[in-house]
Amino acid sequence: MNKQIQQNHPDAQFVNPQITSDDEIDLRELFAVIWQGKWLIIAITAVFAIGSVVFAIMQPNIYKSEALLAPASEEQGGGLSALASQFGGLASMAGINLGGGGGVDKTQMAIEVMKSRQFASDFIQKHQLLPDLMAAEKWNMAENAVIYDADLYDVSANKWVREVKAPFKPEPSMQEAYKNFSKIVSVNSAKDTGMVTVSVEHLSPSVAKQWVNWLVEDINKVMKERDVAEAIRSSDFLNKQIAQTNVADIRSILYKLVEEQAKTIMFAEVRDEYVFKTIDPALVPEEKAKPKRALICVLGTMLGGMLAVMIVLIRHFVRKE
């Protein structure tokens, strides 16, 4: 059968050798073209290598400080959950919703608050971080001082002098500041352990460490104030409801709810680390986090080499046509 197929297709035995021969010719031609243009390839690669080295050297060091936090908030819904299971039916008849222990996790809410535009704006304005955030150019290690870009910010006059087009103003808006803030501030939660890491990257290691400490302090304070204000409003409402009802069982539920709100306020007042408890505090980093100068040089050189080879091949085939 195989012999008959070969006889019916006499040219079949020449297909593979011809394709192989063409492939060998093409590969030889490509290598020959590359070899002929080796000096151009070397020149372009050298230019890219030198450029990447200069670029890497000009990049300022960025330092990263971080703190490891653990959720410090105890379950606040435990008392309400017990009330819901005990008096849920009676409370529903009276129009009172005790909840079922669901809702948003307080730790996750705190993380989202830290990432929010409102918290970032208040944080920047409270600690007057706008120059360090938007105008920092480099860090003077000897004096441990941030050097600002004179074209953006005049330190002596404490005035923004940058030139921008409308609707932007010389002083950066909170929208501009938030964009930069979200790039250098990171808040991540580990799914397996629940631990939260807060990190800040900055030209100054001292500034990075200080910002991490402020972030932890402020988020604990903000979440505490929110819960206390909510508990006070709830207590006022419940006391009004107690005065308006004469049903003993309903009054008993309302008194227990008032007691739970009092516990919330007491819990908030006696603890500074209300939402997050610091496990590993932030330190002033001694080593830079980036840039990776060696990697920049290697990638720049490789990019130059590949671009040079493409130029040589394209130039050859254009001339050939």
From TrEMBL:
<feature type="transmembrane region" description="Helical">
    <location>
        <begin position="294"/>
        <end position="318"/>
    </location>
</feature>
<feature type="domain" description="Polysaccharide chain length determinant N-terminal">
    <location>
        <begin position="23"/>
        <end position="126"/>
    </location>
</feature>
<feature type="transmembrane region" description="Helical">
    <location>
        <begin position="39"/>
        <end position="58"/>
    </location>
</feature>
<keyword id="KW-0472">Membrane</keyword>
<dbReference type="InterPro" id="IPR003856">
    <property type="entry name" value="LPS_length_determ_N"/>
</dbReference>
<dbReference type="InterPro" id="IPR032807">
    <property type="entry name" value="GNVR"/>
</dbReference>
<keyword id="KW-1003">Cell membrane</keyword>
<dbReference type="InterPro" id="IPR050445">
    <property type="entry name" value="Bact_polysacc_biosynth/exp"/>
</dbReference>
<dbReference type="Pfam" id="PF13807">
    <property type="entry name" value="GNVR"/>
</dbReference>
<dbReference type="Pfam" id="PF02706">
    <property type="entry name" value="Wzz"/>
</dbReference>
<protein>
    <submittedName>
        <fullName>LPS biosynthesis protein</fullName>
    </submittedName>
</protein>
<keyword id="KW-1133">Transmembrane helix</keyword>
<keyword id="KW-0812">Transmembrane</keyword>
<feature type="domain" description="Tyrosine-protein kinase G-rich">
    <location>
        <begin position="277"/>
        <end position="316"/>
    </location>
</feature>
